[in-house]
Amino acid sequence: MALPVEIVRRVTFTDIAEFPSGAPIVAEDPLRSRIPPGKYHLDDSNLPILNNVAPLIRYHGNSKSWSRIYKASMLQPRSNQSVDVAVKLYEERFFPLRLVTGSPASPHVLRETDEVFAWTESWAYSKMQDLQGLIIPKFLGVFKFSNGTGAEIWGIITELVEGLNLRDYCSNRIKELGSGSWHDVARQTASAIHEIRSCGCANLDIRADNIIVSRTEPTKITIVDFATARPSVGPHRALFDNVDEVAFGQMVKNDICRYEKGPDLIHQWLFVRKMKNKYPRDGWVQSPSWDTIIRRTVKPHLTRDEWKEAGVPNEYDDEEYQDTERQRAD
């Protein structure tokens, strides 16, 4: 059964060139910070029509989340063709309890309101215009919606990207094709994070659920969700320059290598070694921001049995490992 989600206004921000621009820095009530009215205008004419609205992600009752995401067919004004889209609503009644204001990664900008989420996504997608449809979804605009509750809800619409999240894809891949069969999508993900940084953005929410892997061949990844994005340079950048790169490393360890046999450190190291040796010209491999992932990774100091458990017993005796052991001893 289709849900009663309708577009009631189109929102156009008048100033998204530089962060934070229209995003508020201070407010009398920080938890209710708002975009100044002069920073956007509303239009209720020639609006797209949504049909066949259904949940893209299943939520349990009043479970807490920063957004609710639906899929729909969207018909543009004066058009006979529909496009499949994702509709992301920032419905504050479902927001998690906010005990603090601001972000630990970027503490000087308040961000946890529906308007600020919508502004931030609009800013981020404008910065990444050249990446849309390639490694991020095509951005189709900010709107206000109704959903039968009587309130107008802020949200965005993007092209619909369907597939498996990175965790589920890699888990299935390892079961079907064996160890290391996830290296290609991990490489694609690292390259995408690097490209996003090159556009001046830091995602700040790199996790397996936000990496969508296509079901078609050749496999293609898409990174979604930029509601918490920040500039990668400038006064409002994230406090840590390589926050997304570190998050990638943790994601590989916790959401991919856990499905491999043996210690996850071994499989992390095998991935990094392959990237350094086989793809040394990749931009992300050469980038200083990836030092903690690429250049500082040392072969794990593990027992022969642990290397055997991981399916690579010969690695325990190879020359590179022995060199590492000698360096440790010195």
From TrEMBL:
What InterPro entries does UniProt report for this protein, alphabetically? Kinase-like_dom_sf (IPR011009), Ser-Thr/Tyr_kinase_cat_dom (IPR001245)
Q: The organism sits in which domain of life?
A: Eukaryota
GO MF annotations in UniProt: protein kinase activity
Where is the stretch described as Disordered?
305-330
List, for all copies, the residue spans of the domain called Serine-threonine/tyrosine-protein kinase catalytic: 126-230
Signal peptide feature range: none
- Name of the protein this chain belongs to: Serine-threonine/tyrosine-protein kinase catalytic domain-containing protein
